[in-house]
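Worked example (supplementary).
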Amino acid sequence: MKIRELGEFGLLEELSRVVKEAGVGQGPDLLLGIGDDASAWLGLGRVELLTTDILVEGVHFDLKTMSWRELGWKSLAVNLSDIAAMGGQPSQAVISLGLPEDVEVEQVLELYQGMIGLAKEFNLLLSGGDLTASPMVIISPTVAGYGKEGQLLTRSGARPGQLIGVTGYLGSAAAGLQMLREGLEFDPEITLYLRQAHLHPVPRIAEAQKLVQEGIRVAIDVSDGLVADLRHICQASGVEAEVEAENLPVHPLVRSAFGEASLRLALAGGEDYELIFVGEEEKIQRVRQQMSTPVSIVGRILPGEAGKVKVLHQGSSLGELESGWEHFKSGKATWSC
Amino acid sequence: MKIRELGEFGLLEELSRVVKEAGVGQGPDLLLGIGDDASAWLGLGRVELLTTDILVEGVHFDLKTMSWRELGWKSLAVNLSDIAAMGGQPSQAVISLGLPEDVEVEQVLELYQGMIGLAKEFNLLLSGGDLTASPMVIISPTVAGYGKEGQLLTRSGARPGQLIGVTGYLGSAAAGLQMLREGLEFDPEITLYLRQAHLHPVPRIAEAQKLVQEGIRVAIDVSDGLVADLRHICQASGVEAEVEAENLPVHPLVRSAFGEASLRLALAGGEDYELIFVGEEEKIQRVRQQMSTPVSIVGRILPGEAGKVKVLHQGSSLGELESGWEHFKSGKATWSC
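After joint prediction of all chains, the assembly is encoded as:
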């Protein structure tokens, strides 16, 4: 069978299975292996986190619509978002780079300036990496971080009766991608907002710390889209979820630019790198009072079919939406999760 | 300036400089940043190590001359070799994979079986990663490990009067690469040995532990070739080195197959993933007595020009050899360091 037939998630399941069967996928100190936002193991006195991504020119990004500096920021930001989704703090990053030999030195330095900007803002050290020749630009950052035992945010543990919260706005990054790809023109305020939303995601490290402090223990970051990422939580937790479309946080500028289409962007658009989290209503209310980042309650956890996500719109069900984006199964370019 | 004009090491220096200037390349706990075999920082009670590689089909490997399982073993083994070169023990690996969509699921599972074989042998957990679509196969493993404070092997600290030791044999992997590339035919014993040397390197984790126990503190693994890698030690330590060609450990099967050309393979051929280390003669003798892996003394450290490596052959100098392989500056395919 070709991997495009099995799909990304199917292949991941297969790999997870063989690794576990071989006994190298679990150990006494390994808290989370293949299948969460980052791996987590019990170090001395704290939980060590490790997360990696691989981003390929022409598949995940296009240097015609973004600068090298923006590429540097974003490629590292999405990894910090995975650390945030675990409730962790980032510490170090090592960067593997594949570069065509006719790239300008100045362009590589710009790429690094983007990463340096992020590193400064989030107290991250750039401590090493690997450079190689390659037919196209490839970036594979790995970020190490840490958290506290018993205070991680994971995909499992959501229980019926709990509510679903989201930080910030949904669909803005996908709206930005659509604008850049299709050359859509809006007024300068909208253009700037959409461009930033797509190219300059801000990892929710501080917000995740607040969630942890208030006793939230279930979260994921929005890389594939609300429905797809919420489905990961529901699968890992063995529960069903119900989302109310009216309560989705759509930014006013996105609504004014995309009208009715905003709803679809908010449900299925990826790469917002906001946090979806699950907890009791009073905890979510306390979280909301403590951060300047907006927090919305978008739905609830139900008993029922594990992994199912229902979307209600004006009281009736929208049915099952497409499952967000999977590598291999689609030609659609996006950033990896 | 194009990066092919500046070269890999020149670009690395530039990146190291901007990262340091920005203040994100050093911190109170960071022991080693850009420029050694792995990054090292002071964790709670131990030193944490992190190393990464990026391997691109057509640049670093060719699936016509190696199996998917061999590719899995080797791509992870070279990272474990970097942990060995720091005197560390590996703990976890995360694997970023880029795969064309028409790859067979069975091939990806074979790739993982190669990595699983290595993980079992070296007590490594495969704890996560990332999968994405890509026009060619890309593998970017990151390995985390740990060592003890004050007991790391680094590139700096070599002093005049110390001797240069090497584990195992040199040039065998390059001989194997030449055989596979040029379709050379030898008798079955030689063919098997050369194939294994190139495709199945065994990271010197246990040997590195013995070096550390006997008080050795300077080492590097042979990825670019003896002269090129020894030059890294000499640059980092501000010393010169002298190598005696007669003392290079060339395997008898390589000598019988390649004759006089073996010398060049041993001096400039990369990818043996043996350890080059520096220390006092009595320490090297104690190390030699304690391991079944052969240990050779191949030269000595001298005062003089920082970074210079002289090769003596039958009493006279061979002069400066080419500096081993640099990405971008050469079209020669190899594995990255």
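Two points are worth noting when inspecting this output. DSSP finds ten helices and 14 strands in chain B. The mean pLDDT of chain B is 91.
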